[in-house]
Specification:
The chain is of the alpha/beta class. The chain is built from 9 helices and 9 strands. It is globular. This is Methyltransferase type 11 domain-containing protein.
């Protein structure tokens, strides 16, 4: 497979449904105008055959709390803006501003130990995008902790999706800190089950700690595949259910209902690796590790899926 990229347009359209043009990064149509272990460095490939919460409030406190948070993400196919907004509100019902702001601020300050420990795995994973992906969609971008891994790549354009609009100021600050020009970054409030992007409009999709808390994992994966161009890749880091019969799995099963309540829908016992493997990507590489800072949200699954 050969990766084709297109030049981006520095102009950012008003918030709304997103479409793609042959000569620019996907841009949104004004909604008011619409009626309708260790990762081997050579284990991934970007072209050819691969061989390889939204962060939630509790997950944000992963280093200090028993109940960590998970990100919830993004998007549906070619929806009129009114339908897209309806799905956003169904999946992520409006919260009070003070709650959304508190949630965002906690995520911005409480994930550092987790990010420090996962950094080596992420660095190897994100290295696969360097020089190969210019249009990147990150679902569940949250406060933008991943921007530092690919923002330095010349010409990269990032479209960040998160249902909590209060994340935007933190994500924009993270973009600046990472050296990503704000003209190359756009934040849109959306959910993973309804991505307001056109078909085959991005080179890569990134999602970390997201599928634990989306309401429909299969639909979100279908949306990820839809917006990826042929030859594009999906990079992921997720926490998944521990092995059956272990004390950790038993603990996760007991605490899962409480986790969903406290962490805005985050599930402790999802078989996310199985879901990704069965979602129709041409090739999927999965690796696993455990992190001391991740408490009960272990093991951690990471890898690349190729379209």
């Amino acid at each position: 497979m050969i990766l084709h990229t297109i030049p981006f347009s520095p102009n950012i359209a008003p918030r709304g449904l997103i479409t793609s043009r042959s000569d620019s990064f996907p841009t949104r149509v004004n909604s008011d105008a619409s009626t309708a272990g260790s990762l081997a460095p050579d284990s991934f490939c970007f072209s050819g055959v691969c061989s390889c919460g939204r962060r939630r409030f509790v997950e944000a406190a992963v280093a200090t709390s028993l109940f960590p948070i998970c990100p919830s993400t993004s998007i549906a196919s070619k929806l009129p803006s009114d339908n897209y907004t309806t799905i956003l509100e169904e999946v992520h019902p409006p919260r009070p501003d003070w709650y959304e702001e508190f949630y965002a601020s906690v995520l911005n300050t409480s994930m550092q130990s987790y990010e420090d420990e996962i950094a080596g795995y992420k660095a190897e994973l994100f290295a696969e995008l360097k020089g190969k992906a210019q249009q990147v969609l990150e679902i569940g971008i949250g406060t933008g902790p991943n921007l530092r891994y690919y923002a330095a790549d010349s010409g990269v354009r990032v479209f960040g999706v998160d249902p909590n609009i209060k994340m935007e100021k933190y994500a924009r600050a993270a973009a600046v800190a990472a050296g990503l020009p704000l003209s190359n970054f756009e934040f849109v409030q959306a959910v993973g089950e309804a991505i307001p992007l056109d078909d085959a409009s991005v080179d890569a999709v990134v999602g970390t700690l997201v599928l634990c808390s989306v309401k429909d994992v299969d639909k979100t994966l279908k949306e990820i595949k839809r917006v990826l161009r042929p030859g594009g890749v999906y990079l992921f880091v997720e926490h998944v259910a521990a092995k059956d019969g272990t004390l950790l799995r038993f603990t996760q099963s007991i605490l899962d209902p409480l986790q969903q309540t406290l962490a805005d829908g985050c599930h402790l016992t999802r078989e996310t690796g199985r879901s990704i493997s069965k979602s129709g990507f041409s090739d999927v590489k999965l690796s696993m590790t455990s992190l001391s800072s991740a408490s009960i949200i272990n093991p951690q699954l990471f890898g690349i899926a190729c379209k």
